[in-house]
C-alpha cells in the first residue's frame, strides 16, 4: 500500500481509538479517500506525505471550488485534511502541517427553516391519532416524541440503550459527540410514548438498543431519518 494511503488508514484507526463515532470516522475516511484520489495520477501513484506542500494543497482546494461545492462542504473536507496532517506531524512522518496555512471559506450565516411549535405539535398529534396496536407504529411515535421533546440528535437516539433510560425519574443518559455523556429530562408525552413502545418492543437476543428494527436489531441513522421524512410527507 502506498505510504499516503497507509497513513490515512492509520489516522482513521487513531480516530476510532480516541472514541469518535463511526459516523464521524466514516466521513473523515470518505473525504480523505477523495483527497487521495485527487493526488493519484492515472496509472501512477500518490506522492509521499512529505512531498505534499502548500502549493499542492492550494491546487486541491481550487479543485474543490471548481466543483462548485458548498462552503460548508469545503470546510469539512479541509478540516479532515488539516486533522490528517496534524496526525502526520505527531507521528513524525512530516515536520510541518501545510494545511494550517490554507484559507478557510466563510460559511453562510443562516438559520435553518424549521416548523413552528404549533405546527410541530399538530403534526405529532396527527401521528398519535393514527397509532394502532402495531409495534412499528408505536415505535415511530416514540421516536418522533423523543427527537422533539428531548432535543437529541438522531445519532444519539439510535445510540440509546435500555440502561440509559430511567422512566421513573424521567431522565435519559445521552452519549454525544466524542463520547461525552449528559443527562436529558424526558417530557411527559415522550415518556408516555416511550413506555408504550417498550411494552411492545421485540429485540434480538442480547440486543440492548432501545429502538430496534423489524429484525430486532439497532436502528441506523438513515432508517430514523426516513421515518421522520415519511410521516412529514
Defining traits:
233 residues; mainly alpha; three-stranded antiparallel beta sheet; 3 strands; elongated
Structure write-up:
This protein has 233 residues and is mainly α. The chain contains nine helices and three strands; from the N terminus they run H-H-H-H-H-H-H-E-E-E-H-H. It starts with a helix and ends with a helix. The mean pLDDT is 89.
N-to-C order of helices and strands = HHHHHHHEEEHH
Beta-strand proportion = 5-15%
Distance between the termini: 47 Å
The chain-level structural class is mainly alpha
Q: List unreliable stretches of 5+ residues.
A: none
| Biggest β-sheet strands, sense, barrel | 3 strands, antiparallel
Mean residue pLDDT: 89
Strands across the major sheet, in which order? 1-2-3
Q: What spatial form do the alpha-carbon principal axes imply?
A: elongated
SSE blueprint:
Elements: H1 3-17, H2 22-39, H3 54-66, H4 71-90, H5 117-129, H6 135-150, H7 154-158, E1 165-166, E2 171-175, E3 181-185, H8 188-200, H9 221-232
Antiparallel strand pairs: 1-2, 2-3
Amino acid at each position: 500500500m502506498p505510504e499516503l494511503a497507509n497513513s490515512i488508514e492509520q489516522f482513521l484507526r487513531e480516530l476510532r481509538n480516541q472514541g469518535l463515532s463511526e459516523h464521524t470516522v466514516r466521513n473523515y475516511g470518505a473525504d480523505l479517500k477523495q483527497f487521495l484520489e485527487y493526488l493519484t495520477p492515472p496509472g501512477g501513484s500518490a506522492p509521499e506525505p512529505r512531498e505534499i506542500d502548500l502549493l499542492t494543497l492550494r491546487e486541491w482546494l481550487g479543485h474543490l471550488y471548481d466543483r462548485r461545492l458548498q462552503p460548508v462542504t469545503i470546510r469539512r473536507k479541509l478540516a479532515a485534511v488539516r486533522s490528517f496532517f496534524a496526525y502526520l506531524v505527531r507521528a513524525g512522518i512530516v515536520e510541518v502541517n501545510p494545511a494550517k496555512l490554507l484559507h478557510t471559506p466563510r460559511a453562510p450565516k443562516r438559520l435553518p427553516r424549521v416548523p413552528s411549535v404549533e405546527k410541530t405539535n399538530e403534526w405529532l398529534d396527527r401521528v398519535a391519532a393514527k397509532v394502532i396496536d402495531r409495534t412499528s407504529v408505536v415505535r415511530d411515535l416514540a421516536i418522533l416524541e423523543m427527537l422533539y421533546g428531548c432535543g437529541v440528535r438522531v445519532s444519539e437516539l439510535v445510540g440509546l440503550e435500555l440502561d440509559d433510560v430511567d422512566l421513573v425519574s424521567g431522565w435519559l443518559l445521552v452519549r454525544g459527540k466524542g463520547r461525552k455523556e449528559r443527562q436529558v429530562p424526558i417530557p411527559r408525552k415522550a415518556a408516555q410514548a416511550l413506555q408504550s413502545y417498550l411494552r411492545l418492543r421485540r429485540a434480538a437476543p442480547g440486543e440492548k438498543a432501545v429502538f430496534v428494527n423489524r429484525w430486532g436489531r439497532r436502528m441506523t441513522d438513515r432508517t430514523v431519518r426516513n421515518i421522520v421524512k415519511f410521516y412529514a410527507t
